Amino acid sequence: MVAGPKLPHEGSTIVKGSITDRNLSEDQHPLLSPTDSEEDLISTPIEVTITEKKPEVPGEEAAWQIGLQVFFPYIIAGLGMVAAGMLLDHVQHWSVFVKVSEIFILVPALLGLKGNLEMTLASRLSTQANIGNMDERKEQLKMIGGNLALTQAQAVVVGFLAALAAMLLAWIPEGKFDIHHAFLLCASSVLTAALASFILGSVMIVVVLLSRKCKINPDNVATPIAASLGDLTTLALLSTLANFFWNSLGSSKVWIAPTCLCICLVLTPLWCYISYKNQYVKEVLINGWSPVIGAMMISSFGGLILDFAVATYHGIAVFQPVVNGVGGNLVAVQASRLSTALHQRSKPGVLPDDSVHGCPNPCTSFCGKGASGRTTRVLLLMVIPGHLIFIYTISYMQAGHTTITPIFAGVYLTAAMLQVVILLYTANWLVHWLWKRGNDPDNFSIPYLTALGDLLGGALLAIAFHILYVVGDKDSDVGD
Predict the structure, then answer these.
(1) DSSP 3-state assignment of 31?
(2) Is there a smaller number of Cβ atoms within 10 Å at the N or the C end of the chain?
(3) Are 332 and 449 in contact (CB under 8 A)?
(4) Type and span of the H or E element at 472
(5) Sign of CA dihedral 149, 152, 158, 164
């Protein structure tokens, strides 16, 4: 008779059946002994173990590994944000920014697209790479094409809505409307969003594929690199296009802005159709609009704060992209890692037993022994050294209107640290809350978190500059 059943190893499938061919000899049935009867021969079940290929799940990384992989992309990203801040400090004096100040409301919303679209794309692809779904070339191409089409559709819609929000927030209280300024805002916003989304989306795809090939966790490097290029690329496109459309208003080429806007809007149904036919992004196309549009609205309120703050403190402009970018960069890394961990251990709607249920304990979030707490501490340790490098780089480049004094550094770093603490704690709650509701955090969490970072960054930085003014720093360094 058959010995006790052999237990299959993890990741195997059991196929059961019976031996029914009576013409086979006993020595051709190794599961049977020579004394087995014909009835045994007919009814003896056999078990065939078929091993399914499981995606390789990386083990827990040590704190130094996380820090090493995150730190250099983080510094590069920060320097990109410094460059964006220096650019904003320069272009704020251009005629188009002075005459159409509503562009300042667009800045956080469009810079936030790297969180709404590019960082979300990077997180989504990083998760797919880590669970083994991007190891085959055919699947890579389908995933890449679908994601690029999706980000184009989202970029055009979000860019158009951001321009409408800027006009509503700025013009309704004053009761004014200018059709030429309206076309300038809409065309600049939509074209900037579309071009930046295509450029940065392509870069993110290359980064994720190279990270996978080099055995580096793309969760640690993809989102910081998106942040490093996102702000500078988007702001350069916005300022260049806005200035071009502004110059066209003074000539016979007033048709350029409306024409560019119409072309982008007409192409949007095509991007939606391609996305709908792609299995990897169809669900995001249907259900993924609420976080993108919600994040855009949150960032627009941050832009309203920036518009007010720049009018009061010109020196704030150079620091705005840095504060917003650093907070969004670090929280995106945390959210991407949390989402990947949940994908590896469970499925949407089912939380692992040791995960966060309800409002997380602050002590556990920042001091816990698990991978989440370890990553949180590593990210927090990067805030102050990173910001010191960034603000002294700004000072060394003689950018902005503010001298870096000890009191300025203290107030500024306090605001920056408070922003990141709030964001990391919120991420720990939001990612698990979305997962429990059956939503993929890769698509929903990062837009909200980076938009919240824009709002918090703008508000805390404005408060910091006001505190500096109140305590006695009233010279041109802060107020000019």
Answers:
(1) coil
(2) N
(3) yes
(4) none
(5) negative
At position 11, the amino acid (one-letter code) is G
The Cα 328–Cα 321 span in angstroms is 10
Matching residue, tokens 């309704």: 172
Residue entry with tokens 């920056």: 416
Transcribe 56-73 into DSSP letters.
PPPPPPPHHHHHHHHHHH
